[in-house]
Amino acid sequence: MDGLEALRARYLGEIGAAADEAALEAVRLAALGRKGEISLRMRKLGGMDPEARKVAGPALNGLRDEVEAALRARRAALADAVLEARLQAEWLDVTLPARPRPGGSIHPVSQVMEELTAIFADMGFAVAEGPQVETDWHNFDALNIPPEHPARQEHDTFFLHRLEGDNRPPHVLRTHTSPVQIRAMLAQGAPLRVIAPGRVYRMDMDQTHTPMFHQVEGLAIDRDISMAQLKWVLEEFCRAFFEVEGVELRFRASHFPFTEPSAEVDIRCSWAGGQLKIGEGDDWLEILGSGMVHPHVLRSGGVDPAQWQGFAFGMGIDRIAMLKYGIPDLRAFFESDLRWLRHYGFAALEVPTLPGGLSR
Ligand code: DAH
Question: Could you tell me if the CB of 289 is within 6 A of ligand 1?
Answer without folding.
Answer: yes
